[in-house]
Hints:
The protein is α+β, with helices and mostly antiparallel strands. It has five helices and seven strands, in the order βααββαβαβαββ. α4 links the parallel β4 and β5.
Amino acid sequence: MKIENSTISDIDEIFKLYKIATDFQKINFPENQWPEFERDLIANEIFEKQQWKMVLDNQIACIWAVNFSDPQIWEEKNADPAIYIHRIAANPNFRGQKFVTKIVAWAKEYAFLKNKLFIRMDTCGDNKRLIKYYENSGFDFLGISKLKSAEGLPCHYKNADVCFFEIKLNEK
C-alpha cells in the first residue's frame, strides 16, 4: 500500500469513485447524498496537493481530500491547528480493508509534519453505523448539529444534521 497525492491523470478515476459512493448513498441514505462535484474543484485540489489516494495492487483503492481550514463547518474551532478530511471514497474492489483506520494512521503523521494538533472530519446524517465505524477508527464523536449557514457549501449540507469527529494529537 502507498499513499500519495492524486495527479490530474487520476481525475476520471476519482469521479468514478465519487459516482460509486453517491450511488451507494442514494440507495442507503436517500435523504442525504453527495452532489455531483465540479471538475474544477477536484482539479484545483489536485493542483494544491489536497487530493490524496491510497494505491493497492497498482489501483486506486481509496481517495480523500485534506484541507487546513474549514470555517463554515467548524466555526470557532477552525482557529485550532487542524487538518480536515473530506470525501473519503473507496473502490468497491477493495471493500473490508478498513481504509479509514489506514487514513487515520497516515493523517497522524501528516498532521504532525504540518504542526497540527487535531484531525477532524464531518459527515451528514444520523447514521449510527457510520458513527460507530469512525469511532472504531480512532475518532471521538463530538455530536450532531445543524450548521448556522450552509451557503456556498455543497447542497448535501443544506438543513442537514452534521456529525462532527475529531482526534486530538499529543502536543509536541
